[in-house]
Amino acid sequence: MDVADNTVALVTKHCGLQLELYQKCVTQNPENWDIKCITQKRALAKCSEDNVPIIKHVKEMCDPFIKDYDACVMKNQQDPTICLDSLKRLFHCTEEHGKLPPSGPPRVVKEEADKPTASGYGYRGGA
């Protein structure tokens, strides 16, 4: 499972209700969902930040790019394609900071560690 799939799975697991309410609101308000669904959007964002650490991390690290893109879109609502460079910078930031941290050194399972090897010592390495 890649980072994006894992993130979506965690949001769904921890914020399923907020996600469902936001989706319903968007579906029921196709013309003005961006205005009508702001409460549900904020609830989903808060839940995601509180329960999915990678989201909070990315939002903290990419805050200037997020603000720049949001401001550009608000300023250029008639032609948001003007904001493509801003979106690219935001994308690159999220790519850089949106990776899961390394899981650390390999863990040795107790049974493997106790098995004798040709040298007479238990297995101590990682795969």
UniProtKB/TrEMBL annotation:
InterPro entries: CHCH_domain-containing_protein, CX9C. It comes from Linnemannia elongata AG-77. GO terms for biological process: cellular respiration. Residues 11-52 form the IMS import disulfide relay-system CHCH-CHCH-like Cx9C domain. Signal peptide: none annotated. One of its GO terms (cellular component) is mitochondrial intermembrane space. Gene3D superfamilies: 1.10.287.2900. Residues 98-127 are annotated as: Disordered. This is IMS import disulfide relay-system CHCH-CHCH-like Cx9C domain-containing protein.
